[in-house]
Amino acid sequence: MILYFTGTGNSEFAAEYIADHIGDECVSLNDIIKHRKAPVFHSEKPFVISAPVYAGMYPVIVTKLLRKAKFTGSKKIYFVATLGSKSCGAGYSLRNLARDKGLEFGGLFCISMPNNYIAGGNVPSDDDAEYKIKYTSIPLMESVSEIISAGETIPHTTGNAVSTVISEGVSSMFNKYMASSDAYTVSADCISCGKCAKVCPVNNIMMVGGEPLFRKKCIGCYACMSSCPKKAINIGQRSVNVNKYHCPKYKEWKEKGIV
Ligand SMILES: Cc1cc2nc3c(=O)[nH]c(=O)nc-3n(C[C@H](O)[C@H](O)[C@H](O)COP(=O)(O)O)c2cc1C
Fold it and tell me: Is residue 138 one of the residues assigned to a domain?
């Protein structure tokens, strides 16, 4: 069972690719979080988690959910991290998480994908993103699928107890002070379609009088900005000229024969 959390579609694409190549099913953690469903999972095949990296670690909302979750059936768990760079230091803490859940840690695989960090400004164009997915991300997904299919374990991880404490500190500061929608603005291009509210995994957006109203629960995933059909949501003026990247859908690429 592949469980994925995504803001802008990369981790969903990776999950769908791996599921298709190992013959397994995908479950959306966005749906579980958004609709407050019980995180109870049963699978006879290994569990595979696919999620983005925020400030060097898995998003806190994902690790919290995994710590609460009940896993039955398979005793093995793999972690896939999609990220803008090449590697992250989350392996040590995810190995501990697996141990605490009574699961065997199969490995952490970092898959470099288009960087969606709009606040950082270096989001690729759609063409560059497509190129990266085809020639960098997909070959990595293929190797990961083979390892999982073969049931191999890749126990070594980067990082140690000290670097993990530092990374977790940075990550929690990031979550506390930087993951916020306080500076978000909505331009006159908004057509009141409500898609932003629909895709927000934490129900941070309410439609009031046809306009999105942001509450105080934002986790900074950019699902709202990247799914807005009019690109009407911005971080003030700061992101106006930054591409609001959204990953293509794996199934659409498959139908078109791209993958
Ligand atoms: C809030 C935030 C923080 C991020 N921090 C990192 C980071 O520390 N390292 C990195 O390589 N990429 C970072 N990124 C880029 C994402 O990890 C990457 O684009 C990921 O594949 C997005 O996945 P998604 O489309 O499933 O949401 C960050 C993105 C966001 C939105």
Answer: yes
